[in-house]
Amino acid sequence: MNETYVVGVDFGTLSGRAVVVRVRDGYEAGTGIWTYPHGAMDTLPNGSPLPPDWALWLPEDYREVLRRAVPAAVAASGIDPADVIGIAVDVTATTVLPTLADGTPLSELPDLVDRPHAYPKLWKHHAAQSHAERINDMARERGEAWLHRYGGRISSEWQFAKGLQLLEEDPEVYHRAQRWIEATDWITWLLCGRETRSTCVAGYKGMFQNGRYPSADYLAALNPDFRDFVAKLDGPLAKLGSRAGDLCPTAAEWTGLPAGIAVAVGNVDAHVTGPAAQAVEPGQMLAIMGTSTCLVMNGDRLAPVPGMCGVVDGGIVPGQWGYEAGQSGVGDILGWYVEHGVPRRYADAADAAGVSVHDYLSDLGGQEPIGGHGLVALDWHSGNRSVLVDHELSGLILGLTLATRPPEIYRALLEATAFGTRLIVEAFDSAGMPVTEFIAAGGLTENPILMQVYADVLRRPISVIRSGQGPAVGSAIHAAVAAGAYADIHEAAREMGGRTREAYRPSPEAADAYDRLYAEYVALHDYFGRHGNDVMHRLRAIRRAAK
């Protein structure tokens, strides 16, 4: 009997990855990667610059992942495409786009190609912060029951904030948009030829709770023309692991896969990674560490956690409450510093040593005693997702002197991201949702110095996912369930997922030293983030006025 395989496709911020996975045991048979030609856009295709805090993408870049990365993965695997029984996708959320009723992106209409709001908005489009604040203020004023499910504040990254921005800044495009849809649901639509929306995405990014979206009366209180917004979201919802449909002939031609195979309901990259890391039981917190970090955890009960991004019944696996929190910038912050703040001689030295600048700076910074740089930083270069939920905040490095060197700054920024993670973990512990195991996935797990810093800062062991393509493998696991190869996600995770338990363990001496730095981080966090001094907000306003 032939082996069977499934394909998982992970659409990241800058590239898409497809992985062919053996159903029996999770063996990764082949991988294909396609880097988006246009990347995360801060200008329109015509060259027009976008305002601050904007981030757009082109739908055609995502289609090309299906045309290029999937066939490349199948070719690399050496399998017969006829042995593939299912496919599933995930996307970093909230990455959302306005379309016509048939799914055509508005940015592809000839008369709208020069209109920024016609384009899809990436998760890190943070220009809707003022709209998010109004959504939060109005919800508190009216006592909207759904608000506590999001830690008391929704983010500017979510669907409703971006939708309200669209309405108020380009009402013509808003009214022409018949659908407002997450990229993962849109790509699933491309694959099977019919619209199906994920309950995961609807719950975390669309405030869909207890079987309904926010009411029309509430939306009209924000703006009378916003009353109809839910009509743009109200496609058929389906649970995780279920079958959205069959691979349609067009998508079969693109991917080289057999028409009619199972297409699973789409998912969010962080949430779908849980099964790949075998992080599907209550108390197992999974950190997906890349350009940003998303932290997800299952719970057996509902509890309010301050600053969480959402808690959704069945949001990660059916039958459990799925909690989400996150940090808007992690790898992005380190990448920004390497690109813009490091003298050329360090890059040359890294080249001579045959390592990346990141590894070179990590090694140099790691040779210093903890606290030897005299620095503490705030990891808010992309705002704060959890626990403050405020994207008007900005980065900070305190303690700079004329003796400070780039490796020390790099180390301080790295430590700041670990401190931000610890604060989130403590928020869960304090809310009565204890973290019993901390599991890491994503590209940053390849940096052992970073991982050891995290273990020391968190004062707990860190397990590491087996796969280097966690989201794509997680999507493949969902495809296997949708195809009927396993009864449910738990069973599939046991056979197809994997992790190395306690790959990193904390040093008591290092943990004690980091406690002192963490106390300073918390003091700065509360002073600048909890209205002790709103200078960061004022600087944002000055910047916007000057543009």
Oligomeric organization of the protein chains: single chain
Percentage of residues in helical conformation? 25-40%
Sum up the overall morphology in one term: globular
**Strand tally:** 20
Instruction: Quote the average pLDDT.
Output: 96
Q: How many individual helices?
A: 18
Describe the structure in your own words.
The chain is of the alpha/beta class and 547 residues long. It has 18 helices and 20 strands. The chain has helices at 59-77, 129-142, 159-169, 171-176, 183-192, 199-205, 216-222, 249-255, 269-276, 331-340, 344-353, 357-366, 406-430, 448-458, 470-482, 489-496, 508-529, 535-546, and strands at residues 5-11, 15-22, 28-35, 84-91, 96-99, 179-182, 197-198, 237-238, 243-246, 262-264, 267-268, 284-289, 293-299, 310-313, 321-327, 376-378, 396-398, 437-441, 462-465, 499-504. Strands 1, 2, 3, 4, 9, 10 and 11 form a 7-stranded mixed β-sheet that branches. Helix 2 packs across helix 3 and helix 9 packs across helix 15 (470-482). The mean pLDDT is 96.
Briefly summarize what is shown.
This protein has helices at residues 59-77, 129-142, 159-169, 171-176, 183-192, 199-205, 216-222, 249-255, 269-276, 331-340, 344-353, 357-366, 406-430, 448-458, 470-482, 489-496, 508-529, 535-546; strands at residues 5-11, 15-22, 28-35, 84-91, 96-99, 179-182, 197-198, 237-238, 243-246, 262-264, 267-268, 284-289, 293-299, 310-313, 321-327, 376-378, 396-398, 437-441, 462-465, 499-504.
